[in-house]
């Protein structure tokens, strides 16, 4: 009986992990990038973690995308709150979920949906919300569109604008 409950619990955790792959995706990437710049010893020191965050976010080479810069903007005033769980070795997703309590917008930042070379059938699998986001990222006005087919047609018509996106 214990084995079955253990098996069910592990299946549930695997399902949650698959669902969480998109949760806080930009924040998780930023945290992983910051971790990659630090040594094991530095990851235990809160002041060094705060300094590493500052260095990462002050990257003047324009290597950061607009979404990563947005995360930096959100975490700058709460560096100390981020450094605490970071110093304990908490996984990046958990750090992001914890700091979302301070600023709920942190986990709303998502990477854009890639649409290059998508066929109509692939676009039809997307939700209208995702299609709206694609159009918004391209700077296309979608007011007046009601049906999903209309959104798909508009995305296909504006495919030439995809080069301006951050893909």
From TrEMBL:
<feature type="domain" description="ARMET N-terminal">
    <location>
        <begin position="23"/>
        <end position="112"/>
    </location>
</feature>
<feature type="signal peptide">
    <location>
        <begin position="1"/>
        <end position="17"/>
    </location>
</feature>
<dbReference type="InterPro" id="IPR045332">
    <property type="entry name" value="ARMET_N"/>
</dbReference>
<dbReference type="InterPro" id="IPR019345">
    <property type="entry name" value="ARMET_C"/>
</dbReference>
<protein>
    <submittedName>
        <fullName>Armet protein</fullName>
    </submittedName>
</protein>
<dbReference type="Pfam" id="PF20145">
    <property type="entry name" value="ARMET_N"/>
</dbReference>
<dbReference type="InterPro" id="IPR045333">
    <property type="entry name" value="ARMET-like"/>
</dbReference>
<dbReference type="Pfam" id="PF10208">
    <property type="entry name" value="ARMET_C"/>
</dbReference>
<keyword id="KW-0732">Signal</keyword>
<feature type="domain" description="ARMET C-terminal">
    <location>
        <begin position="121"/>
        <end position="159"/>
    </location>
</feature>
